[in-house]
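ok so I'm stuck.
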Amino acid sequence: MLLGIGVAVGVALFAAGLRGNTLAVAVVVLLCLGYWATGWLPDFVVSLMLMFLLMTCTSLGANVVFSGFTSSAFWLVFSGAVIGMALNVTGLGERVAVRLADHCGHAYGLALAGFVAIAFALGIVMPSTLGRIAILTPIVLSFCDRVGLTPGRPGRTGLMLATALASCELSTAILPANLPNLVMAGTAEAVLGLRLGYGEYAIALVPTLAMVRGVVLVAVAQRLFPDRLSAPVITGANDIPAPRPSMRTDEKRLLGALVLMLVLWLTEPWHHIAAGWIGLGIALLCLGPLRLVNPDAFLKQVKLAPLWFVAAIIGLTAAVDHAGPANALRPALAHLDLAQMSTMPAYLVLVGLSIALVCLVTSNAAPALFTPLVPALALGAPLGMKAVLLTQTVGISTIVLPYQAPPLVLAMALAGVGIRDATRYCLATTLVALPSVVPLTALWWQAIGRLHQ
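replied:
not stuck anymore, here's the structure
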């Protein structure tokens, strides 16, 4: 069936005028996304199939197709696995989980709300979504072990997906918190001469794209992955909690390494070393001089499938960017006439356009396509230039399928979450967010005068 759909779409695109790499990439990507979404083939098999088809059916070259292996995100998966194992071996992850269980371990809904809030708060101080995922994933998994959400339990999947998607989606409301925001702001300043202020950006987006969407993430996770928390295991006479032991030497060494990693991540604008290479350096410290993780034990436990998946997703994004499907869309988008529409229909059309672009070219690439078109879209439209620019944030924060957000793919790889569960969750949150977050954002912008500027 998927092959038939791919052939039909290929014929339709050929009739529409697409040729060469653009046509081949569109068909290959559609085919592989279908297999990923349905889970009819193992993820790593689809990942290898994507690379094979792109290499044999296009002329993009190995530097594009295999660009995932040279990306810092790929090595962040590896370093995340090492750091996660170190947190488990030393007991530092359990110590953090115990503290969180004291506050959030009384009810499943409370735990979901707590981790979603933590993911958003961390976005204010850490401008790397991949970094937030790498830090939060082992902590969430340790918390799940602490409260009885063992592997295979729906609550474990729900907590991990809610935290990961919150790290990706809610950070859209904080200007420097993720890469799509920075691409949008940088392009707007360089091409349009529009400067987005931190305060005005937060005022326009936090109430709906962070708060309302956060409620949606919690509610959908609780409905889609229902579960109950078990009481944390208590040791000691008469059910009195035993006093927590002081930190051991290996815990202190790991804590020092994590603090160093955070400092280097936060100072990236000055030293320009990507998060993945910093994570790889800390992983080598854990495997080597600090002696926190046994290399032989790590080699026995590490799974290569998540690495293939991440590399394939990054290669897919690069292929879409280089093959030119986005450029083929520009003439049609530039002729989109909003002058005949009133404010609300024009707003909904722009939001729909932004969501469609994120589906086509992923969240990282969509701002680079949408932002240069803002002057043409705003010409005669009943929305101001900044309002047209900001409508794309609704699309960036709407992850319909996991492939659209590479950090979500990273979290799935680190936590062992299946593509089927992630797809169900993304689709469900989208279906709830469209009739809630989208109109509430418009009403909020009207209240603060943003739609009339």
